[in-house]
Design goal:
Layout lengths: L1 H27 L10 H29 L17
Helix pairs in contact: 1-2
Organism: Anoxybacillus pushchinoensis
Protein name: DUF2627 domain-containing protein
Keywords: Membrane, Transmembrane, Transmembrane helix
Length: 84
């Protein structure tokens, strides 16, 4: 059940990242989509969508691996010490 939920959580950002790649590719070939006013804006929106989707997926995987202690020492969270 948890794996199914994790897959569903990752599908939406994956589709957003794929949409961003598609918009950037279409900009290179000069294809402008209807609601977007110019090719430059389309490329920037595509880049933002790609980075946001990829960042979410990467953060999700990092968070999951930190919980399971499967990351290198440099990626582990720093422990806080309370001063009394």
């Amino acid at each position: 059940m948890q794996r199914t939920i994790a897959l569903l959580i990752l599908l939406i950002p994956g589709f957003i990242a794929a949409l961003g790649i598609k918009w950037m590719r279409d900009t290179v070939f000069g294809i402008l989509h209807a609601p977007i006013p110019s090719l430059v804006v389309q490329f920037l929106l595509g880049f933002i969508c790609f980075i946001a989707g990829l960042g979410f997926i990467g953060g999700f995987i990092l968070h999951r691996d930190r919980k399971r202690n499967k990351v290198q020492a440099r990626f582990q969270k720093k422990k806080r010490f309370d001063s009394e």
